[in-house]
Design goal:
single chain; alpha/beta; Aspartate Aminotransferase, domain 2; Aspartate Aminotransferase, domain 1; 2 domains; seven-stranded mixed beta sheet; three-stranded antiparallel beta sheet; 12 helices; binds pyridoxal-5'-phosphate
């Protein structure tokens, strides 16, 4: 793809994907048909999970997980300050309060010790994020596992492994949420999934996805019949369609290839930047773990005006760099609306001063990577 504009992330759609979606469009069910369950089973099998419940987006999946965890008014949900706003917003949707905790400067994931210190009576959930695709070390939360529900935001880490076990599978969080947005490891256009080993949580996720309605195991009155159903909770319409799931089934077959290619690209960036003292490279996965590499974030050590100049220069050169993310507490809704403090997360602030996400997606060629690094060095 040399020469043209390079976004930071991009989907890959094959002829097989197009054929799969076309076949779904020719079928009788566009939504609530068989492809949703087929996709859920395939994804569950891929990560080794007992249940996978598909949603209309990763944000809806996080909202479903917050609901299933019983998060409500008066409760707190611990969330790292460095993540996409949806990781925290799902607590607000449920009337609960996100408690923003700083990151570990080495991994850029939640500082679990700080999270444990901040946890208390009202802490009901912790939402660790596997930032950039680096699987978060969940053992750091062991001291509170018996009294909180852990919802991993794995939106960057689908296809990755933590100590040999797929992210989203057994031995992980109580629930793991994934996004299937086009910039993520695989896509359904918009879409999301929650995986869990727990039957009760899976039931609640399914109910929440479709208005809180239950059809099975309900008792109709004496004059009521086959139409009978009960709305037991206040849910939403967060369903995904069959043609999206047809795309998901097809994309899932290439997930390992996509993650493999992302890891090759990251290795090549590391080679090309090995002698570049002016930037800091992102943390690599631990031995025996596999990075998802949704993002490849470098840090311009000088920060401030230098980072800004390098960012603008790369954009001007047709390289679609981005900054992931503006810390949540800096967002006006949180800062001004909810009065979140601005000075409690020094590691997040340091990171935010320096970060630039370089393009990373499977279709990038070696020449693209050389072009990105050449422009970057020139600007530094
Ligand atoms: C993409 C993303 C989400 C939201 O997913 P959508 O599918 O866009 O709703 C949530 N959390 C993180 C960390 C993400 O990267």
């Amino acid at each position: 793809m040399s020469g043209g504009f390079l976004p930071y992330g991009r989907q890959e759609i094959t002829e097989a994907d197009i054929d799969a979606v076309t076949a779904a469009l020719r079928s009788t069910m566009l939504t609530q048909g068989p492809a949703v369950e087929t996709f859920e089973h395939a994804l569950a099998a891929k990560v080794g999970a007992k249940h996978a419940v598909a949603f209309s987006s990763g944000t809806a999946a996080l909202h479903g997980a917050a609901f299933a965890a019983g998060l409500g008014r008066g409760d707190e949900s611990i969330v790292p300050s460095l993540t996409f706003v949806a990781s925290a917003n799902c607590a607000l949707y449920q009337g609960a309060r996100p408690r923003l905790i700083d990151i570990d400067p080495e991994t850029l994931n939640l500082d679990c010790e700080a999270a444990i210190r901040a946890s208390g009576e009202s802490t009901r959930t912790v939402v660790p994020v596997s930032f950039a695709g680096l699987p978060v070390e969940l053992s750091g939360l062991d001291p509170v596992r018996d009294r909180v529900i852990v919802i991993e935001d794995g939106c960057h880490a689908l296809g990755g492994h933590r100590h040999g076990r797929p992210v989203g599978g057994p031995g992980g969080a109580d629930m793991t949420c994934f996004s299937l947005h086009p910039v993520k490891a695989m896509t359904t256009g918009e879409g999301g999934v929650v995986t869990t080993e727990d039957d009760g949580l899976a039931d609640r996720l399914r109910m929440f996805r479709t208005h809180g309605l239950v059809k099975q195991g309900v008792e109709p009155g004496p004059d009521e019949g086959g139409w009978y159903m009960e709305m037991r909770e206040l849910g939403f319409n967060y369903r995904i369609t069959d043609f999206q799931c047809a795309l998901g089934i097809s994309q899932l077959e290439r997930l390992d290839d996509s993650i493999g290619r992302r890891n090759e690209i990251a290795a090549r960036y590391r080679e090309l930047l090995a002698d570049e003292d002016r930037v800091l490279l992102p943390p690599a996965a631990a031995e025996g773990s596999l990075h998802g590499y949704h993002l490849f974030v470098i840090r311009v050590r000088a920060g401030g005006q230098t980072r800004l100049r390098v960012f603008e220069g790369l954009r001007a050169a047709g390289i679609g760099v981005q900054v992931h993310y503006i810390p949540i507490y800096r967002m006006p809704y949180y800062r001004d609306g909810l009065g979140y403090p601005q000075n409690e997360c020094p590691a997040t602030e340091d990171y935010y001063d320096q970060a630039i996400s370089l393009p990373i997606f499977p279709a990038l060629a070696d020449a693209d990577l050389e072009r990105v690094v050449g422009e970057l060095r020139g600007l530094l």
